[in-house]
Amino acid sequence: MLLRIEDLWVRYGGITALSGISIDVPEGETVLLVGANGAGKSSTINAIIGLVPAAKGRIIFAGTDISHIPCERRARLGIGYSPEGRRVFPTMSVTDNVLSGAFGLGRKRQMEALEWLRSTFPLLHDRASQPAGQLSGGQQQIVALARAMASFPKLLLMDEPFLGLAPVWIKQISDAILQLRARGTTVLMTEQMARPALKLATSGYVMRGGEVRRSGPVDAIRDLALADEYL
Ligand SMILES: Nc1ncnc2c1ncn2[C@@H]1O[C@H](COP(=O)(O)OP(=O)(O)OP(=O)(O)O)[C@@H](O)[C@H]1O
Ligand SMILES: [Mg+2]
Fold it and tell me: What is the 3 CA–ligand 1 centroid distance (Å)?
């Protein structure tokens, strides 16, 4: 198991966002966390990357308990993160946005990353010197994804990559995720939009109110995931 979450609790002051969830992400798979607003999807992702503390429970990545180590060390262990709302550095060029994800890798590896990402996403080449803030939402999502991939992470966390995007961009992001998977990247993604996400995932978890309602292969969670989609 590349990532194992055991009995994870997250609290914001008096608010309990996660009430003891357990999640397994096997190597090479694409695992989906699906659920309506406030289900606890972002809290889960943010606890894994270390942006919010775990009140209780364990997060084990590649055999190491990472629940108490700082964010940057988790990233260095091989966890990439693409935040909700496709945050890019708006005034920085597309290329610099992507390179910012490869910070600390060394010039040679950075150039390797850039070359590979440009061959995967031609947009990064075509818009190389344009400020990222000038791109469309879908294009910015590609940049955010490329930045998260620039360090060649073993595990890619993606928080709602489809949010607010037109179908044509959902298709492009989906294709990009499939290409990353073909390259051996393990993916843990969240989505409120169950329908396109279920096409990508190998297994998933339906969350509601900070708990896991159901989990299993996509076929076992599909009906509940779709029923929750419009809550
Ligand atoms: N910084 C915060 N301070 C206080 N409460 C928070 C904070 N962030 C999230 N919460 C609460 O924690 C719960 C889980 O929120 P979370 O953002 O993890 O859900 P989500 O599934 O990502 O929702 P969405 O689909 O809207 O992104 C919600 O009740 C939310 O209001
Ligand atoms: Mg969220």
Answer: 22
